[in-house]
Design goal:
Blueprint: H1 3-68, H2 78-105
Length: 106
């Protein structure tokens, strides 16, 4: 094998190796970008879920306050009314227990 032929084969091998490395790095870059995009979307989704949960909590607290002030629950579904009143009874009981604990602490 002549020097020139050997040199050409070595150049060709390096060229193929460089191309393969570039392809691998391109694919890895795409995967990292995809992972990053999905992570951002998951964070945004979690933030929206947290905001929604806060609104549910705000709604529940307002309904609870209204019930404590004597508001009437009206619904065609007796089961719904029963569930709301049952939850409200539990809230009252827990509020009383919290007040007792506060008194014990002081």
């Amino acid at each position: 094998m002549e020097k020139e032929e050997l040199g050409n084969k070595i150049k060709e091998l390096f060229s193929r190796g460089a191309k393969a490395s570039k392809d691998v790095l391109d694919k890895a870059g795409e995967k990292v970008q995809d992972f990053s995009d999905k992570s951002v979307k998951k964070i945004e989704k979690h933030q929206l879920e947290s905001k929604r949960d806060c609104k549910y909590e705000e709604l529940g607290m307002k309904i609870s306050q209204m019930l404590m002030e004597g508001a009437l629950v009206k619904s065609d579904c007796e089961e719904d009314v029963s569930i709301l009143l049952s939850i409200q009874d539990e809230i009252k009981e827990l509020t009383d227990q919290i007040a007792k604990k506060d008194a014990e602490i002081e």
